[in-house]
Amino acid sequence: MDLKPPHHSLVGRFQILLPSDELAIRVRALTLTPTETPTEYIRHQMKQTGGNLPVFTNAAMQMIHAASKGIPRVMNQMCTQALYDTAAKNSEAIDESHVGRVLTDQEWQRGSAG
Question: Strand locations in 1-114, DSSP E?
Answer without folding.
Answer: 7-11, 14-18, 55-56, 93-94
